[in-house]
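Complex 253.
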Amino acid sequence: MGSLVKIFPIKHRDFIHAGKPSIEIKNILKTLNTPREIIRRVAVCGYEGEMNVVMHARNGQIRLELSNTMIIIKITDKGPGIPDIDQAMEKGFSTALDEFREMGFGAGMGLPNMKKNADRFEIRSTPEKGTTVRMEFATGER
Amino acid sequence: MKVKDLKEQLDLVLVAGEAGLGQTIQGGYCGDLLSDVMANATEHCVWLTVQAHQNIVAVAVLKEMAAIIITCGNTPDKATCDTADQEKIPLFLSERSAFDLAWALARSDTD
Ligand SMILES: Nc1ncnc2c1ncn2[C@@H]1O[C@H](COP(=O)(O)OP(=O)(O)O)[C@@H](O)[C@H]1O
Ligand SMILES: [Mg+2]
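Predicted structure with magnesium ion bound:
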């Protein structure tokens, strides 16, 4: 089987549509009979990644790739970048604005939870250019 | 217990997502930090939260929740209700706190 690629745009500060790409990805994985345990982890990672673009970056995208042996989720944005990635990865670290904290965002758990839920997690960021988070989920042979 | 039984037991107001009333509830989660809810809520739970903005429905769909109860007199806007209708996630309102509601639910749940 070849690989499938789908790209969904993410809009900065768009809380109405935020999460919908992750819901669509979840539905695609369900129709392909992906194990529920994997779908649950992909959902957490997709949602947290989307919300980071919505809150902390500017516009971006979430890309789903299905190969024979894994699911790859790649979230890219053209945001301000992350000056200190080690600090951003710490549990509880957040620069979220008060208006987002009031909505229940900004717990500083997004990146740590993405790392925990993905089988492989990579983050790259260039100040003033943007951030890319790439996550792999092993599915075994389809 | 079915979602529709919640309404009477806890004296809730249903504002959206009527199509999901037949779902069975398995457990519950109280939380207002969305990352915490994403990490810890379980499938088919009822979620008790003070949050009432549009994004709570996305969280409920991603976690395959049975229903949301918005607590402490908070109210969602029309867009949130519309999304809940589309996604068939029952959205209830209550003046009571999450603790009060969870306490009442635990005492009344017979099955
Ligand atoms: N895509 C991004 N662009 C710029 N900064 C980011 C991005 N993602 C995360 N960050 C930074 O890393 C911090 C920690 O992220 P996270 O663990 O998801 O917590 P939270 O989103 O709750 O703040 C954010 O507060 C922000 O400063
Ligand atoms: Mg985050």
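Chain B is about 40% helix and 15% strand.
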